[in-house]
Amino acid sequence: xxxxxxxxxxxxxxxxxxxxxxxxxxxxxxxxxxxxxxxxxxxxxxxxxxxxxxxxxxxxxxxxxxxxxxxxxxxxxxxxxxxxxxxxxxxxxxxxxxxxxxxxxxxxxxxxxxxxxxxxxxxxxxxxxxxxxxxxxxxxxxxxxxxxxxxxxxxxxxxxxxxxxxxxxxxxxxxxxxxxxxxxxxxxxxxxxxxxxxxxxxxxxxxxxxxxxxxxxxxxxxxxxxxxxxxxxxxxxxxxxxxxxxxxxxxxxxxxxxxxxxxxxxxxxxxxxxxxxxxxxxxxxxxxxxxxxxxxxxxxxxxxxxxxxxxxxxxxxxxxxxxxxxx
Length: 327
Ligand code: NDP
Known about the structure:
The chain has 11 helices and 7 strands.
């Protein structure tokens, strides 16, 4: 009898371990995020919050707007293409809880630093507060490291780093005064490791991680939360507007659903909204094998670098495009 009970407990433990391993293999986010999805707050916890999303005219920012609109957040949608922002606004209102005046379309160029303070004033005039700033606008890159013109480095740092820092500095005094605020930043897997054929992009995302880790410490005194979001390959317009090695040339390629194993934009936005609702510090959003790589880089960097060199540039480049690293 004793033996039987013991085996039952053992079988239960083995079953739990198998289920957990299966879930780990099937995961499309880090463990904390997966836990929050199952047991944590849902995006509707953000209902009524005023959320400003940059880069809301396409891709991850667009789908995050849909998630947050459904959750009942009031939104400010920013990017350069106003017609696309109006399209996103219409879609947000359709069938959801928001009314016309709950969404402000606010054209903004992240590289035009001098316009950022005025933009903040317009938002405060309309909503009287900003609860969450989602720094999502950004462009990637496909280029060989040694061929990149320094002007490309300059423009990418202006967009992916300095624009983000400048806009955040324009918003922070308001949040400090309110003693409450949440800054979300769309970083990247490239903010955690070296992404091949994206030297400048990797530099910008590492820089952004550093800037906001420092703010996490300083901002804590003012009850400011920081969420760094690191997605792996996700379907969006990213490759169409990618920088290359020259400022006069865009990469201009579409993503190909038939060959690329990227996460859907909707799923990435769903997980991002969960990370926001639970105020998680940093989340990784990706399927394997990229997710496994981030774990290796985080906990066993020496080993991960060794594997990276062994796998070789071609396979790594395919991996980062979500092509499984075969051939
Ligand atoms: P998209 O190209 O679909 O979206 C980029 C957004 O940034 C657009 O709304 C674009 O709007 C905006 N943007 C570009 N330049 C400027 C500018 N100068 N001023 C203001 N807004 C600008 O790509 P994603 O949705 O994929 O990219 C969103 C974020 O996600 C980026 O920061 C990217 O680095 C990050 N990311 C994406 C991954 C992916 O695989 N897709 C993986 C990891 C991170 P407009 O052109 O109208 O100005």
